[in-house]
Amino acid sequence: MAYETAVLVPARNEEVGVLTSLESLSGQTRRPDIIVVVVNNSTDRTEEYARRFADDPSTPQTVVLTLEDNPHKKAGALNYGLFWLREAVGGRLDGRVGHVLVMDADTELHPRFIERARNVIASDPEIGGVSAACLGRTDLWRNPWQRFLLGMQIIEYGRAANARYRKDVHTMSGAGSFYRAEALQGLIDWRGEVFWEDHRNLVEDYETTLALKESGWKVTANQLCIAYTDLMPTLRELIQQRERWSRGTVDTLRRRGWTKFTWHSITTMIIGLIGFAYIFLWGGRQLAVVAHHGLSHHPLLWALFGFWIVYPALRVRNLGWKAMLVEALLLPELVYTVVRAYWLVSSILKSYVTRVSAWK
User: Fold this and answer.
1) β-bridge mates for residue 359, sequence order
2) Structural domain contains residue 283
3) Distance of CA 212 to CAs 102, 216, 219, Å?
4) Domain count, the chain
5) Is 270 among the domain residues?
6) Domain that holds residue 275
7) 284 with 192, same domain?
8) Does any domain span residue 243?
9) Could you list the pLDDT tens digit for every one of the 360 residues in the chain?
């Protein structure tokens, strides 16, 4: 038995979105040969909904695995699914499986995602993985603050999707990553597993991206390989999510140190901290000067003010005029910048002073 495209979907308490995610796979222009859903430490009806999808004869072949005692979070679930897949094809992925798509159970893929990702992989034999361009999806808000919060996340995702490196991406997206099976088998041969199983591994997608680069593979991103992912509806949930991502990134960088694969991430983080300091210290001082003396005698500040309006708006032009207007107003982005600064600084501090707790 062989599969050209296999899909792994780890799902932990995803009863709300798992059917939508699986249906987006069923609606692909190049449908997968097999879908492996790993129900991971779930306490809701995720397994029931996944099996309902698997029992539908019109859907691609789907296997539902249950992992009830998994201390290794998403990494453990993905490795469990890969182990099942390897056993199903005779012990190795290379030669029996062409591609492996990993996607979250709260993600919906563009109908041509697999078709486009396969074309990217086929364009260069050195490419080991293609990352999705992630866009936010939601129209659920109950008050102006929540609408602001969700809207800024939509802009954030859209801006990141438009600016990602196509030749050497920072990290493969957990929402949707399309791997060459040969590259994953290479990681198994090299270190015994694809995704590092350790309760301290909060960002299995980033750690695996570094491992692929270190083993000689290229990773890339493509704007046409789109994954629509859920957004965080409250400030508390948003900060928890971003602290986990940022803290996990800092932990991984600390373990690996300065290398040709980590220097860009480390430098970007340092520049981000300097940027926050600039905005809050120098920018605040200049605003105080303007408030006291006005802009008429400060042509340089006029120029900077114009730049701060035009440049952020142009960066989100692919999201439409509403997003451009929000960015041009400056204040919404400044408020969100305060939130971003908080989770970045707190993540760095927590990486040095607190331990990552294991799953119970």
Assistant:
1) none
2) yes
3) 15, 7, 8
4) 2
5) yes
6) 265-353
7) no
8) no
9) 789 999 999 999 999 999 999 999 999 999 999 999 999 888 999 999 999 999 999 999 999 999 888 888 899 999 999 999 999 999 999 889 999 999 999 999 999 999 999 999 999 999 999 999 999 876 666 788 888 999 999 999 988 877 665 556 778 888 899 999 999 999 999 999 999 887 777 788 999 999 999 999 999 998 889 999 989 989 999 999 999 999 999 999 999 999 999 998 899 899 988 888 877 776 666 566 655 655 555 666 667 677 878 888 888 888 888 899 999 888 898 889 889 999 999 999 999 998 876 654
CB 276 within 8 A of CB 347: no
Report the distance separating Cα 359 and Cα 287, nearest Å. 47
pTM flag (> 0.70) = yes
Residues 227 and 269 in one domain: no
212's CB contacts (< 8 A; 6+ apart) are 128, 129, 172, 183, 187, 219
Q: Which amino acid is at 265?
A: S
In a domain, 358, yes or no: no
Are 136 and 229 spatial neighbours (Cβ–Cβ below 8 Å)? yes
Which structure tokens are listed for 229? 């992912």
